[in-house]
Amino acid sequence: MRGVLEQSKRLPDAGESGTKVVLVLPLYVEAGELWTLLREEPDDSPPLSFPATPFEGDDPWPTVARLVNTGLGVEPSRVLRLGELDELGGPGGFRLRACVVAVPSPEEDGSNVEAPPVRLPLSALKHPRLIEERTFEIEGQSVPFAVYHVGRHRLWGPPLDVLLRLIERLERPESGPELPVGSLN
Q1: Most C-beta atoms within 10 A of its C-beta, which of 1, 7, 10, 45?
Q2: Alpha carbon 114 to chain centroid distance?
Q3: How far apart are CA 16 and CA 30, in angstroms?
Q4: 2-176 is classed in which CATH architecture?
């Protein structure tokens, strides 16, 4: 997987005006299948999210180490750095860098977060129960979004975009050979 993620692309430099945000996409293996962990955000939109925060400089990985501890409750020494997806851009120079990590199975992790994460197999996104198009008001503009209904959850916005990009990247026939993975530390 690391070889596949090494091919990520950066957007052209937008200068100092844009906000750089790192998003942590955690993966683990259960029953021979890739799963991810999302957080439920009861008062926010979208209702499911990954840990994310603005970061300074060019290297998001020190921020990733803090986020896996505070956002997922997993010690950074138990997390393996797998790589990044292509950088995404947004309004006003917004730049999102999705960093993919391997985490322990939720049963084994001994996490210290209050709310348990939402566990989602990546295969569920290939066959959602329903896909609807909704229009949301963002900064005064109507923006259409695909909303995936997966089990009892709805997934849309950046979390869905990042997961679909990961699945697309993993299914490309030109995916490179497996390379050893490195710890965040």
Answers
A1: 1
A2: 20
A3: 42
A4: Alpha-Beta Complex (3.90)
Gap between the Cα atoms of 158 and 162, Å rounded: 6
Residue 24 forms beta bridges with which residues?
99
Percent of the chain at pLDDT above 70? 76
Query: Minimal CA–CA distance to 156: which of 185, 176, 174, 130?
Result: 130
Residues in a beta bridge with 182: 81
Q: Is 144 exposed, middle or buried (0-12, 13-18, 19+ CB in 10 A)?
A: exposed
Region of 21 please: left (phi>0), alpha (psi -120 to 50) or beta: beta
Burial class (CB in 10 A: 0-12, 13-18, 19+), 53: middle
For tokens 């909704």, the residue is 134
Closest by CA position to 24, among listed 133, 76, 101: 101
Question: Is 101 strand, coil or helix?
Answer: strand
Q: Which of 49-53, 76-80, 153-157 has the lowest mean pLDDT?
A: 153-157
